[in-house]
Amino acid sequence: MVELDETPEDAVIREVLEETHVRIEPEILTGVYKNMKLGVVSLTFRCHAISGEPEPSDEARESAWLTIEQARERMSEARLIRVLDALRSDGPFVRAHDGTHLL
To answer: For the segment 34-73, what is each residue's pLDDT rounded down to a tens digit?
Structure first.
């Protein structure tokens, strides 16, 4: 969640650090994704790591670098598309999903 006193870029820096222990720098907004069932809108940024190694946290049971193939095997369609969109150069994308599948 974006706190009242922070920008979306500051929020992604804070959230990634809290959840993975990796310090990142946002590069560009790559997508806007709405969960139609929950009414939640998520912004996705392509980022690069500055320091730290992924490790579990209070908010994530597992944290790891994945290849695209590993992401395809582990992620639902609604999550995977954010990764795939972030690797493209023709965004940003606006997509809707039901929590699992794209609509």
So the answer is: 999 999 999 999 999 999 999 999 999 999 999 999 999 9
Contact 20, 54 (CB under 8 A): yes
d(CA 56, CA 18): 10
To the question of pTM greater than 0.70 for the whole model, the response is yes
Answer yes or no: CATH 3.40.640.10 is held by domain 8-97: no
Average pLDDT over every residue of 5-30: 97
| Closest by Cα among 46, 37, 41 to 12 | 46
Distance set, CA 63 to CA 18, 59, 87 (Å): 11, 10, 19
